[in-house]
Amino acid sequence: MIQNKKLLENTKNLLAFSAGVDSTALFFLLLENNITFDIAIVNYGVRKESQEEVAYAKELALKYNLECFICDAKPIEANFEAKAREIRYNFFEELIQKYTYENLLTAHHLGDRLEWMLMQFCRGAGCVELSGMKAIDERESYRLLRPLLHLDKQELLEYLHRREKRYFIDKSNSDMKYKRNEFRLCYAQPLLKKYLSGIKKSFQYIDEDVKSLTNDAKIYHLNKLSYFQTTGSCLNDIRIIDRYFKSKNKLITANERKQLKEQKSVIISRRFIVNQEHGYVFIAPFITDIKISKKLKEKLRLLKIEPKLRGYLASDEEAVELFSLLLQ
What we know:
Blueprint (H helix, E strand, L loop, with lengths): L4 H4 L4 E4 L4 H12 L5 E6 L6 H15 L3 E5 L7 H20 L3 E3 L4 H14 L3 H5 L4 E3 L4 E3 L7 H10 L16 H35 L6 E3 L2 E5 L4 H14 L6 H9 L2 E4 L3 E6 L2 E6 L8 H9 L4 H7 L3 H11 L1
Parallel strand pairs: 1-2, 1-4, 2-3, 4-6
Antiparallel strand pairs: 5-6, 7-8, 8-11, 9-10, 10-11
Helix pairs in contact: 2-7, 5-8
């Protein structure tokens, strides 16, 4: 019932747990398949059930001899969904680094994938963006796996009911003020109820097609500089840039994506510079408050280095030497 089981065997796995339907179903499926794992749960403190959910996570961990990591998040003042995601993944990645987990498991399912696809379709997106979530997502220092991506939520509910397993319902998932909930309740769920088998087949075909539409590129790293050779397709390069920032727990905005299509140099989140020229794509911290010597200025000018990149290069001699080798 779970995908990519072999990738879970004989590895250190961390399950993103919430005590809801999806992650609880994945919890017991992992146990049934003799997959070893630990769990991590975030308490945002916005619902009275949160303490009960954390207590349930502790109870399960004790019963099945697992580690249970808990994050008590600070109050979120605004932009809850985006901030909560940032807190969540920062917490998971800290645990991954500290305890050398190889896989992060999330309980995203077919409904999540369909609602994401519908949202992207209504915003304006290409074929690859519409394909949405992947079952296997390689990150910089770990692998993100979604073993339930081929299953509908109703199938997960039926699984839990058959085995009489306890789970919690997050009432905020029915709050229509969140755009994702609107797409889930009004469009994705009715479609899945009526056309489940066809939707499953369509995503299988889409995944096969996307492989033929995209070219990958190896991203190299030197200190805080990252770079890769352009694939020859602007859209494909932007997908790689997007994936890079996702690995850093940062989502580029629609406006930033538009700028990347139109400009050779773009500032991302006022913190990073992305420069697309000389046959490479360079990503580095955006630094302005640093003095650049006349000698270095002239060297960077002769190399035709983007001025917005020069602040970072003034702080990294090794990166300057790398540019000299790449662009000579």
